[in-house]
């Protein structure tokens, strides 16, 4: 059996290596030795490149390489389209909104060019007509709760916008949820594990920023929302973040979610669940 596990060849950290080794071990415990590869092991483009696998578990954000491997006839999990949508918070927002799923009111900043930026920020007046302060400002590309900010007033909103541009960004209504959120791990059409993440004084509950994780039993509404969100963005494996306001709201969908601390908190072998799912596709 020819299974490729692809990770990034440049963003190599203890956390990323931990996930790669957990997935490798999960396959090996099922009698399968995956082929560990980095995205830097390939050259995508209009060249002849033999890269045929029974299935590719693509644990990276290299959308073009994922598309290249798909064009070679490989089944890639997650697909290049799922990676593209999940890695851009603006695209994710409009995709989820189109499906009618509950998420905080979100506005995508207008596109500008890198050498121009915003010569005026008049559009922020329209933003504040739609959203109440505080307003969450997120760079469209970012992980681990970083590149996420909170504007408490109009001056702070202008300052954040000017500091972030020309990077794309979104503006989002703040949902009061007592500095906590939920992470539901979706594999296939099931939620296989869930945790509550609680921050230590930060409005962002991401564990990488010092928050804590505790095992959580999600409601049916939260499970249904997480599965629907993963399907809408096309992700077969996803960490779905949900905020508990007056009802559950989708915060974001992560196609390459780190799950080691979730495993520790729940005692559930998420890597084994992922391996089982990948093997079921062959």
Number of distinct helices: 9
General shape: globular
Oligomer: single chain
What spatial order of strands do you see in the largest sheet? 11-10-9-12-13
Q: Average the pLDDT over all residues and give the rounded result.
A: 94
Proportion of β residues? 15-25%
Summary?
With 282 residues, this protein is an alpha+beta fold. It contains nine helices and 13 strands. 33% of the residues lie in helices and 24% in strands.
Protein described:
- The protein is of the alpha+beta class.
- Helices cover 33% and strands 24% of the residues.
- The chain has 9 helices and 13 strands.
- The protein has a 5-stranded antiparallel beta sheet with strand order 11-10-9-12-13, sandwiched between helices.
- Helix 1 crosses helix 9.
- The longest helix has 15 residues, at 14-28.
- It starts with a strand and ends with a helix.
- The model has no long low-confidence stretch (mean pLDDT 94).
Draw up the topology in text.
Blueprint: E1 3-7, H1 14-28, E2 35-38, E3 55-58, H2 63-71, E4 76-77, H3 80-86, H4 89-98, E5 106-108, H5 123-130, E6 135-139, E7 148-151, H6 154-164, E8 169-173, E9 180-187, E10 190-198, E11 212-215, H7 220-233, E12 237-244, E13 248-254, H8 260-266, H9 270-280
Parallel strand pairs: 1-2, 1-3, 3-4
Antiparallel strand pairs: 5-8, 6-7, 6-8, 9-10, 9-12, 10-11, 12-13
Helix pairs in contact: 1-9, 2-3
Task: Pick out its properties.
about 280 residues; alpha+beta; five-stranded antiparallel β-sheet; four-stranded parallel β-sheet; 9 helices; globular
């Amino acid at each position: 059996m020819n299974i490729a596990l692809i990770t990034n060849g440049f963003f190599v950290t203890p956390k990323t290596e931990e996930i790669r080794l957990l997935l490798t071990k999960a396959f090996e415990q099922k009698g399968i030795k995956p082929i560990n590869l980095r995205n830097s092991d390939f050259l995508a483009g209009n060249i002849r490149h033999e890269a045929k696998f029974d299935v590719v578990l693509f644990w990276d954000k290299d959308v073009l390489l994922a598309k290249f491997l798909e064009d070679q006839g490989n089944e890639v999990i997650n697909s290049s389209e799922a990676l593209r949508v999940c890695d851009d918070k603006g695209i994710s927002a409009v995709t989820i909104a189109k499906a009618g799923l509950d998420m905080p009111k979100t506005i995508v900043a207008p596109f500008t060019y890198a050498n121009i930026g915003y010569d005026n920020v008049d559009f922020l007046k329209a933003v504040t007509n739609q959203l109440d302060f505080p307003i969450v400002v997120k760079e469209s590309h970012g992980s681990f709760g970083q590149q996420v900010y909170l504007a408490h007033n109009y001056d702070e909103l202008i300052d954040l916008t000017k500091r972030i541009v020309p990077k794309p960004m979104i503006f989002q209504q703040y949902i009061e949820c007592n500095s906590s959120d939920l992470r539901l791990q979706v594999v296939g059409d099931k939620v296989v594990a869930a945790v509550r993440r609680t921050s230590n004084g930060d409005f962002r509950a991401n564990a990488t920023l010092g928050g804590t994780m505790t095992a959580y039993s999600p409601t049916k509404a939260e499970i249904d929302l997480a599965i629907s969100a993963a399907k809408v963005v096309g992700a077969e494996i996803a960490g779905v973040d949900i905020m508990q306001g007056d009802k559950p709201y989708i915060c974001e969908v992560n196609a390459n979610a780190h799950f080691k601390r979730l495993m520790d908190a729940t005692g559930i072998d998420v890597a084994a669940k992922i391996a089982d799912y990948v093997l079921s596709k062959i």
